[in-house]
Fold this protein.
Amino acid sequence: MLQLKNVDVCYGSFKALNNISMTVDTGELVVLLGANGAGKSSLFNAISGLNKPSAGDVEFEDRRLNGLKPNAIVSGGVVQCAEGRKLFPHMSVLQNLMLGAYVHRRDRAGNKQRLNEVLELFPILEDKAQQPAGSLSGGQQQMVAIGRAMMSRPRLLMLDEPSLGLAPLVVKQMFEIIKQINSLGTTVLLAEQNAFAALKIADRAYVMENGQLVMEGDQETMLGNEQVRRAYIGA
Ligand code: ATP
């Protein structure tokens, strides 16, 4: 479904991504592990069109994404839920969710159906629909951010650090919902520092260090790998 071939991204003279090649297959839940500054967000931005690769190719469903504008990439089925939620705090929860439906604005019936599906995933948001998004708890705001991304009807959903700053119980709930989104048919690429919880729901994972992918494996291999355990799980 998604294929990166020898992708480089530079910020001035600094090479943030170095020769990245990776794949995500239809239906998979793939995790990208890496410490702060490893390059996870740079990689996501290279896929979603916010960063322009200085070398290499990004392909989605056999279509080249390099050079396309971010809104064209969203319309094409690749949606990023950025680190830090980036909600409009003074707008209501419902208005924030509906912003995600902008790319399908002519399909009112489809958007209504999608909204119902999103509210089924996050029932608490139905009670909070008219409240300003900024008045919600951190976990609930993260739900709005993921819900808004789902309103764009992605075939590939990229989630950048969705558990960041959340209480442990909420983190657990968040990972359950991400797994559910994947089980319902959306392919997921998940960048996380919360390695253990992320690997527990993953099919496969890549490890990124200093802008390079240094390891790849399925869930079992990664959870059993001594180096991964020491560096990312702390056990
Ligand atoms: P984090 O989880 O902290 O966001 P990350 O793994 O997502 O980390 P990136 O944000 O992709 O990492 O950053 C990779 C490297 O690129 C870091 O050294 C960072 O300082 C640098 N970097 C990121 N954005 C820019 C930018 N706009 N200009 C210059 N350097 C940048």
Summary: Residues 168-183 form the longest helix (16 residues). The mean pLDDT is 94. Residues 146 and 192 are 15 Å apart (CA to CA). Residues 11, 14, 16, 34, 36-42, 83, 161 surround adenosine-5'-triphosphate (CB under 6 Å).
